[in-house]
């Protein structure tokens, strides 16, 4: 405080104030200073597509459905699809899981996806469509469609070569309608066409055209041919009538065609999502269905909820059992499968799971009319030039760049069989790299993640709230139809669920910092706060009382 | 109580009630008090006035004298004319808040009925209670008659409000407080003319929010304390002016001190309070015998009217100061004061100090005569203090 | 949590006040004035707030403040009240804002008298459980087990805390409430109620002192919430001295969780913590019975 040079005559008769304490710059007392330092919520962090989940939930909370939908679209063009089929690692990472139950993010995404599908018209950005660059996308599955979307968005002409008669790949041909209605896929594809996508159907790489054909005509090529070659069992009599391929089986059903050799007792081999899909589809076709899997439930790669649903619907899963030999009748038709009991050994494989070992003399036969093989898929590499392929997949870096000029690749054909959302993410990343390649766009910066853990939150300000439950088609109504099991929730339900979001690491203007500051050193502005460093004493109350770890304290360096 | 029965009449009232009438006429707005003998009658009558609506004041019945003064502090700080009364232990308990009233520059008027301090318990008069508060910064008036009590009460408010300094008026227990005398009760209109409504210079104002009495560092404290000293110097002047103004309207004046037959006096008695009345009578007798004795009545004790006291006493050869109080280990307090005032004068009288009448023991003309005789005969004061009427 | 009042941007306090970092008392004033608004006169006896407000010639509040002697908060407020009333300024509220020493100890006499007279004042005690301004000496508000500079080491305070709210409620004034700075809206609501009351209102505010409690300043709010949730300082109101209402159902957290965050309790053994837990539980039972008594 500045020293006052006052004479007696300058003073009032008594010690009565004439100045505000504002002249006391109490900020000089500080050792640590607070700073609004937004961090990464785990949902965003764990989302393979890095969707800004917290942000779209915050829009959803305010009923700003379109803004919420468009937020998803920045990272993922097909929320109506991922909202249905994604295995939602976001929910596994959700901090709320440690408090009561994680946010049902997928229900919100699904709602927004449907909202967008119904109410948000795509804007084709004519002015940006310069026509000077053309990209060919080979394969109309999730990564191809995703790549096409982001290229279109940035004014690139895109032609998608699809060997089948419909676009969507696994979305259309693989995933059964009770999980993902074909209608949804069709509408998303239509929307993409509205945005300017050109499709060439029934043309297959290596058969109808070659890569070099395209490199002449197009400025860049994106390979997204997926992993579609199904693995063989390598056991005797595998070629018997009634032994089917999983994806093939699903495709036939999805095309509403008749399945040859489809009997009353179906046996599915495998523990992945394809196996579960096959089993549940077979069930809907009126069969009694068993699955054999060589390890235990814990090791099953399929999405847990799907496994549970399958069991509820009546699928019997026989664990620790491996196929030995197909048993057939004289006509060469399947009669059953000889199996062997397994146990988990000490050795661990490359996936980190214990390797199953057969138990001697434990062979037994499971009777069945139809056997569906669903033990995995691999990439068709024969149709590709040698310089871009590896042992099992196409070789490309994280941006989809291959060793060949103009040629890029992404999705399952690079990663091996993975999930829809990962394929979509790959498609997006490669699209932006192609934009960099063609139009000198900056490569999107790698995001820096300051993950917010549960311990960083101040949970005092949260109340326990039940997670919203989706309505599901009753088990007894799932027979002999492919009706979608899950129903999209109402906007009221979605608002409720959105209200459960902790908004980890992202300020949502809860005002706690403003409310609790004992030094009035935080000013409230329209949608943000300002710290008055002249007065902040650095007590740390704002940081501590921030429920979502937005404010951090930093050491005050000597000035 | 009907107004017509009070104003503009000569009434026979006690000293205590004279205070009450003074407060009534001064239109005090907040009164806070706690009962103590011999003061209680002051506030009893004020309660009556309030209850009858004659006095539109808030009477806060506090739980202690400390709180009485604290309540006055609050009320005065919020801008009201305030009054309290007490005695002895009550005043002692108020001590801390007397400082607050002074430092807060609050024009509170306090009537103290002089009562001796316990133990042993005494309800009778002496001045040790009020003189113990000498240094808090209150203006102190010592009154001789019930009329003077009433008039001083009214004057006290005017002085206090003009100088922003609290005023204590002092009257002797029983001798004045409970003794009835005829007193002129002024007309309210006249008092209104003399004492307009209180307009505080500083008050707790929500439209000008300030802090009163905050932590004051050595950088500022001294200057602000000096302001209190300035207020006392001003009060000395103002008291005289107020007394003159009072005379203009009411035809009565008292002076800050009163010199009685001092012009040619060789020996001057110095008194305060009711002993003055007794001494007056003795002086008249002695004068008739041809003795050149005079009397100086100290009415205003603080601020000290130095110049008048000097002017009067330096003409005498001997001064006898009669103290109804004692500063143990030293002498009577008035005596010390007089000595200190005269010390630097080139021509100064010999000063004899007499302590008398502690705890309300009667001071009779014979005592005064003895003091005069003793002082006359003595060549110089061999003792710092002489104890009159003490049974040795 | 959605704020009803605590986040309104009306402030009657300025930056630059002299409270320690994380001062519960400073914060309590901020909230109290948010509730009472511009038409308020504050009386501050000797306490931390004598310093916080700023040394002469400074002032941190946007309402007038009268600094007064330690034991006189209530009666000076009464004096101001009387003065305002006689001038017809009945729309101005008088708030006595005192510490625990100035309330439970030296000021209890004047406070009791104001309550008995039922003067229309609001008396708020910001309780930091010791004489903090003078350097952490025990007061009658210091709880059992606490270290202070006058109850050092093994001589930690062995006596229980004086229950001031009950003492004041026994005067049967219209409104007595406990409040915690960890519950700002509740605190503000109580001050608003106090304003409406016809007579004396007493609000006992739990206002931690990180400095004196040997605690990190950022815990100011958390500790205030814990005190309530551990039932150390339940939030309740007493109407007319008889009708008890509990305002918040504590989360029933063991008192240990509250004690362990504070250095002043760090010496306590399990046994002593058990004693405190039992006392806390017992007090809660009594409170429940009082609530039922009126129902």
Number of contiguous helices of chain B? 12
Structural class of chain B: alpha/beta
Order of helices and strands of chain B: EHEHEHEHEHEHEEHEHEEHEEHEHEHE
Helix-strand category of chain A? alpha/beta
Please state the average pLDDT score of chain A. Answer: 93
User: What percent strand of chain B?
Assistant: 15-25%
Largest β-sheet summary of chain A = 5 strands, parallel
C-alpha Rg of chain B (nearest Å): 21 Å
Q: Give start-end ranges of low-pLDDT stretches of chain B.
A: none
Sheet with most strands: strand arrangement of chain A: 5-4-3-6-18
Helix content of chain B: 40-55%
The shape of chain A, in one word, is elongated
Per DSSP, the total helix count of chain A is: 18
Topology:
The complex is a heterotrimer of chains A (559), B (392) and C (295).
Chain A: E1 19-20, E2 32-36, H1 42-46, H2 53-61, H3 65-73, H4 79-85, H5 89-93, H6 105-119, E3 134-138, H7 142-153, E4 157-162, H8 170-174, H9 182-194, E5 198-201, H10 211-217, E6 220-223, E7 229-230, E8 243-245, H11 246-254, E9 265-269, H12 273-284, E10 288-292, H13 304-313, E11 316-318, E12 321-328, E13 334-348, E14 354-358, E15 364-367, E16 370-373, E17 377-378, E18 407-409, H14 412-415, H15 420-439, H16 491-499, H17 512-516, E19 522-524, E20 529-531, H18 541-545, E21 551-555
Parallel strand pairs in A: 3-4, 3-6, 4-5, 6-18, 8-16, 9-10, 9-16, 10-11
Antiparallel strand pairs in A: 2-21, 7-17, 12-13, 13-14, 13-15, 19-20
Chain B: E1 10-14, H1 15-26, E2 30-33, H2 40-52, E3 58-61, H3 65-77, E4 82-86, H4 88-103, E5 109-114, H5 128-131, E6 139-142, H6 146-163, E7 167-172, E8 180-184, H7 188-194, E9 211-212, H8 218-250, E10 257-260, E11 267-271, H9 275-288, E12 293-298, E13 300-302, H10 306-313, E14 318-323, H11 333-342, E15 350-355, H12 365-377, E16 386-387
Parallel strand pairs in B: 2-3, 2-4, 4-5, 5-7, 6-7, 11-12, 11-14, 14-15, 15-16
Antiparallel strand pairs in B: 1-8, 6-13, 10-12
Chain C: H1 24-36, E1 40-44, H2 48-52, E2 58-59, E3 65-67, H3 73-86, E4 93-99, H4 100-105, H5 108-117, E5 122-127, H6 164-169, E6 175-180, H7 184-196, E7 201-206, H8 210-213, H9 220-229, E8 236-239, E9 243-246, H10 255-259, H11 270-294
Parallel strand pairs in C: 1-3, 1-4, 4-5, 5-7, 6-7
Antiparallel strand pairs in C: 6-8, 8-9
Helix pairs in contact in C: 1-7, 3-5
Explain what the structure shows.
The complex is a heterotrimer of chains A (559), B (392) and C (295). Chain A has 559 residues and is an alpha/beta fold. Chain A is built from 18 helices and 21 strands. Chain A has helices spanning 42-46, 53-61, 65-73, 79-85, 89-93, 105-119, 142-153, 170-174, 182-194, 211-217, 246-254, 273-284, 304-313, 412-415, 420-439, 491-499, 512-516, 541-545; strands spanning 19-20, 32-36, 134-138, 157-162, 198-201, 220-223, 229-230, 243-245, 265-269, 288-292, 316-318, 321-328, 334-348, 354-358, 364-367, 370-373, 377-378, 407-409, 522-524, 529-531, 551-555. In chain A, the strands form six sheets. Chain A has a five-stranded parallel beta sheet, with helices on both faces. In chain A, helix 2 (53-61) runs antiparallel to helix 3 (65-73). Chain B has helices at residues 15-26, 40-52, 65-77, 88-103, 128-131, 146-163, 188-194, 218-250, 275-288, 306-313, 333-342, 365-377, and strands spanning 10-14, 30-33, 58-61, 82-86, 109-114, 139-142, 167-172, 180-184, 211-212, 257-260, 267-271, 293-298, 300-302, 318-323, 350-355, 386-387. Chain B has a seven-stranded mixed beta sheet with strand order 3-2-4-5-7-6-13, with helices on both faces. Chain B has a six-stranded mixed beta sheet with strand order 10-12-11-14-15-16, with helices on both faces. Chain C contains eleven helices and nine strands. Chain C has 295 residues and is an alpha/beta fold. The mean pLDDT of chain C is 97. Chains in contact: A-B, A-C, B-C. Strand 1 of chain A pairs parallel with strand 2 of chain C, so a sheet runs across the interface.
């Amino acid at each position: 405080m500045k020293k006052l040079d006052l004479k007696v005559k300058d003073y009032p008769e008594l010690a009565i104030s004439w100045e505000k304490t504002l002249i006391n710059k109490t900020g000089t007392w500080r050792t640590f200073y607070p700073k609004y330092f937004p961090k990464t919520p785990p949902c965003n962090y764990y989302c393979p597509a890095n969707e800004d989940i917290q942000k779209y939930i915050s829009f959803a909370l305010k009923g700003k459905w379109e803004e919420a939908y468009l937020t998803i679209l920045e990272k993922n063009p097909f929320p109506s699809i991922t909202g249905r089929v994604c295995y939602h690692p976001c929910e596994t990472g959700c901090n709320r899981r440690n408090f009561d139950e994680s946010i049902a993010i997928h229900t919100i995404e699904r709602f927004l996806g449907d909202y967008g599908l119904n109410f948000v018209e795509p804007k084709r950005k004519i002015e940006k469509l310069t026509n000077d660059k053309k990209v060919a996308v080979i394969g109309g599955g999730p990564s191809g469609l995703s790549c096409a979307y982001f290229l279109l968005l940035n004014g690139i002409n895109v032609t998608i070569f699809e060997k089948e008669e419909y676009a969507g790949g696994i979305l259309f041909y693989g995933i059964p309608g009770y999980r993902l209605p074909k209608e949804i896929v069709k509408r998303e594809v239509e929307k993409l066409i509205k945005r300017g996508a050109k499709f060439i159907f029934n043309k297959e790489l290596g058969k109808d055209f070659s890569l070099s054909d395209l490199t002449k005509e197009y400025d860049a090529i994106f390979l997204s041919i997926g992993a579609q070659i199904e693995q063989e069992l390598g056991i005797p009599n595998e070629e018997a009538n009634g032994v089917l391929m999983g994806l093939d089986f699903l495709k036939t059903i999805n095309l509403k065609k008749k399945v040859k050799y489809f009997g009353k007792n179906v046996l599915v081999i495998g523990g992945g999502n394809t196996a579960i899909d096959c089993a549940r589809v077979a069930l809907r076709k009126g069969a009694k269905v068993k699955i054999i899997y060589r390890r235990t439930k814990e090791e099953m790669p399929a999405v847990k909820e799907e496994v549970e649903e399958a069991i509820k619907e009546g699928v019997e899963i026989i664990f620790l059992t491996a196929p030995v030999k197909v048993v057939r009748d004289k006509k060469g038709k399947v009669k059953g499968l000889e199996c062997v009991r397994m146990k988990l050994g000490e050795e661990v494989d490359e996936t980190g799971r214990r390797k199953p070992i057969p138990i001697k003399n434990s062979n037994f036969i499971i009777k069945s009319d139809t056997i569906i093989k669903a033990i995995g898929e691999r990439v068709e590499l024969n149709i590709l030039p040698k310089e871009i392929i590896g042992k099992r997949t196409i070789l490309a870096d994280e941006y989809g760049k291959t060793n060949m000029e103009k040629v890029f690749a992404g999705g399952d054909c690079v990663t091996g069989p993975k999930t829809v959302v990962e394929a979509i993410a790959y498609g997006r990343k490669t699209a932006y790299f192609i934009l960099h390649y063609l139009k000198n766009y900056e490569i999107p910066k790698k995001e820096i993640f300051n993950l917010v853990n549960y311990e960083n939150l101040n949970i005092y300000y949260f109340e326990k709230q039940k997670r919203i439950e989706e309505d599901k088609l009753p088990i007894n109504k799932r027979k002999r139809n492919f009706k979608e099991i899950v129903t999209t929730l109402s906007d009221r339900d979605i608002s409720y669920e959105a209200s459960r979001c902790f908004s980890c690491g992202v300020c949502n203007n809860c005002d706690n910092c403003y409310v609790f500051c004992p030094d009035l050193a935080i000013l409230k502005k329209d949608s943000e706060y300002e710290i008055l460093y002249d007065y902040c004493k650095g007590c740390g109350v704002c940081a501590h009382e921030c429920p979502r770890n937005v404010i951090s304290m930093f050491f005050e360096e000597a000035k | 109580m009907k107004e017509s029965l009070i104003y503009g009449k000569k009434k026979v009232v006690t000293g205590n009630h004279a205070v009450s009438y003074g407060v009534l006429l001064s239109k005090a707005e907040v009164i806070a008090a706690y009962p103590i003998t011999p003061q209680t009658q002051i506030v009893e009558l004020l309660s009556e006035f309030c209850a009858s609506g004659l006095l539109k004041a808030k009477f806060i019945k506090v739980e202690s004298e400390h709180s009485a003064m604290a309540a006055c502090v609050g009320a005065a700080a919020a801008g009201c004319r305030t009054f309290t009364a007490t005695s002895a232990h009550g005043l002692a308990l108020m001590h801390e808040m007397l400082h607050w009233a002074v430092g807060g520059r609050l024009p509170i008027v306090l009537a103290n009925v002089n009562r001796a301090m316990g133990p042993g318990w005494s309800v009778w008069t002496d001045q040790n209670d009020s003189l113990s508060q000498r240094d808090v910064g209150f203006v102190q008036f010592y009154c001789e008659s019930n009329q003077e009590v009433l008039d001083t009460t009214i004057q006290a408010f005017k002085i206090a409000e003009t100088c922003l300094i609290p005023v204590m008026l002092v009257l002797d227990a029983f001798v004045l407080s409970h003794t009835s005398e005829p007193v002129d009760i002024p007309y309210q209109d006249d008092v209104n003319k003399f004492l307009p409504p209180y307009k505080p210079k500083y008050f707790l104002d929500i439209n000008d929010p300030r802090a009163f009495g905050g932590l004051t560092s050595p950088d500022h404290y001294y200057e602000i304390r000096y302001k209190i000293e300035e207020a006392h110097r001003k009060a000395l002047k103002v008291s005289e002016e107020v007394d003159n103004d009072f005379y203009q309207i009411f035809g009565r004046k008292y002076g800050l001190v009163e010199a009685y037959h001092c012009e040619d006096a060789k020996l001057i008695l110095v008194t305060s309070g009711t002993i003055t009345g007794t001494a007056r009578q003795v002086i008249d007798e002695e004068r008739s015998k041809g003795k050149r004795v005079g009397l100086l009545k100290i009415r205003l004790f603080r601020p000290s009217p130095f110049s008048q006291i000097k002017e009067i006493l330096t003409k005498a050869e001997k001064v006898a100061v009669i103290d109804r109080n004692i500063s143990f280990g030293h002498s009577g307090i008035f005596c010390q004061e007089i000595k200190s005032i005269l010390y630097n004068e080139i021509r100064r009288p010999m000063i004899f100090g007499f302590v008398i009448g502690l705890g309300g023991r009667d001071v009779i003309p014979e005592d005064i005569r003895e003091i005069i005789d003793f002082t006359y005969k003595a060549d110089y004061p061999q003792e710092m203090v002489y104890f009159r009427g003490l049974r040795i | 949590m959605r704020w009803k009042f605590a986040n309104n941007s009306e402030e009657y306090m300025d930056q630059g006040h002299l409270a320690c970092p994380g001062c519960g008392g400073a914060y309590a004033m901020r909230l109290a004035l948010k509730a009472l608004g511009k038409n308020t006169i504050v009386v501050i006896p000797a306490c931390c707030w004598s310093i916080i407000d700023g040394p002469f010639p400074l002032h941190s509040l946007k309402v007038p403040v009268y600094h007064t002697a330690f034991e006189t908060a209530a009666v000076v407020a009464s004096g101001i009240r009387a003065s305002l009333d006689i001038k017809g300024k009945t729309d101005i509220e008088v708030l006595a804002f005192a510490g625990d020493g100035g309330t439970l100890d030296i000021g209890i006499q004047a406070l009791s008298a104001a309550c008995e007279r039922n003067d229309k004042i609001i008396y708020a005690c910001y309780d930091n459980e010791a004489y903090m301004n003078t350097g952490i000496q025990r007061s009658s508000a210091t709880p059992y087990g606490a270290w202070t500079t006058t109850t050092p080491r093994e001589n930690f305070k062995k006596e229980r805390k004086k229950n001031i709210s009950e003492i004041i409620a026994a005067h049967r004034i219209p409104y007595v409430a406990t409040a915690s700075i960890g519950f700002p809206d509740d605190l503000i609501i109580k001050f608003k109620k106090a304003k409406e009351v016809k007579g004396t209102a007493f609000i006992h505010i739990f206002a931690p002192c990180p400095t004196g409690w040997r605690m990190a300043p950022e815990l100011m709010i958390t500790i205030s919430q814990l005190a309530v949730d551990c039932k150390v300082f339940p939030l309740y109101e007493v109407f007319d001295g008889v009708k008890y209402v509990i305002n918040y159902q504590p989360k029933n957290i063991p008192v240990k969780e509250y004690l362990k965050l504070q250095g002043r309790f760090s010496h306590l053994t399990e046994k002593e913590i058990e004693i405190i837990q039992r006392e806390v539980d017992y007090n809660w039972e009594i409170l429940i019975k009082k609530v039922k008594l009126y129902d």
